[in-house]
Design a protein that fits this description.
51% of the residues lie in helices and 2% in strands. By secondary structure, the chain is an all-alpha fold.
């Protein structure tokens, strides 16, 4: 029988991807056995090297979606590593990041958006590292440091306005967030903007009946001189008003 799972051979593949291959069943058995015995089934390691490797691939033009597809993991998992959301990671994660880096570190990815992200955060490409795993090491970016910019990226903003990017994906660069809200405020209320961008605090209600997310957007608009969306009153056509009056 062919296994239809997208991930195979590990305990997480057994639980999250419903893989029932022999290797996944054995990994799940060992996981539970070690847990019952009080042993840590997931050995951890510092995330520095993995984080730098993902960032270096992004700096080569590999976007998160393509990296996730090649690794067989979700884009969120790849982003968690890239943005160093955890100081330690499992050895399994460290290994697949290392393997992915070995496959792609010599090949440009071709994603303009990935290059924009890497430039925005100052992420170094593979050749800038002498020892990518050494926490004390610093990348060699040459004599010219990238100049910081306060300009928004039109590609990022355009995707956010179309609903293809969320708050979490654009909040790292303030000008992108402000310009996105500026454009959306021409046709959406603050609450509607919060829903489209999946703004944090969307379901946390304030005493005034609005969400924390909507209040944050209102403050952002005020701080940046962005007017609120004004609903246009619908005025009935005169002929319709006459018919309504006659019917009454």
């Amino acid at each position: 029988m062919t296994c239809a799972a997208t991930k195979h051979g590990t305990a997480s593949a057994y639980t999250a991807h419903r893989c029932r291959c022999a290797t996944a069943r054995e990994a799940w058995r060992l996981y539970n056995k070690r847990r019952r015995e009080g042993r840590n089934p997931q050995h951890l390691t510092d995330s520095t090297g993995a984080t730098r490797r993902i960032r270096a691939l992004v700096a080569l033009g590999w976007n998160f979606r393509e990296l996730a597809r090649r690794a067989g993991y979700s884009r969120r998992t790849v982003q968690d590593v890239a943005y160093a959301r955890r100081p330690v990671i499992t050895l399994h994660t460290d290994r697949w990041v290392h393997d992915l880096y070995e496959q792609l570190s010599g090949t440009p990815g071709g994603s303009r958006y990935a290059l924009i992200v890497a430039g925005r955060y100052g992420w170094a490409p593979p050749l800038a590292w002498d020892d990518i795993d050494d926490p004390a090491a610093r990348p060699n970016l040459g004599d010219v440091e990238p100049e910081p910019t306060d300009d928004y990226d039109p590609v990022t903003v355009g995707q956010a306005v179309e609903g293809r990017l969320t708050y979490a994906q654009i909040a790292g660069h303030r000008p992108d967030l402000v310009e996105t809200v500026r454009r959306l405020a021409t046709r959406l209320t603050d609450t509607e903007i919060a829903h489209q961008l999946r703004w944090p605090g969307l379901h946390q209600m304030r005493p005034n009946g609005t969400s924390r997310a909507a209040n944050s957007i209102t403050k952002l608009r005020h701080d940046n001189g962005i007017p609120a969306y004004q609903h246009r009153a619908v005025i009935p056509h005169p002929a319709k008003r006459r018919r309504t009056t006659q019917a009454a």
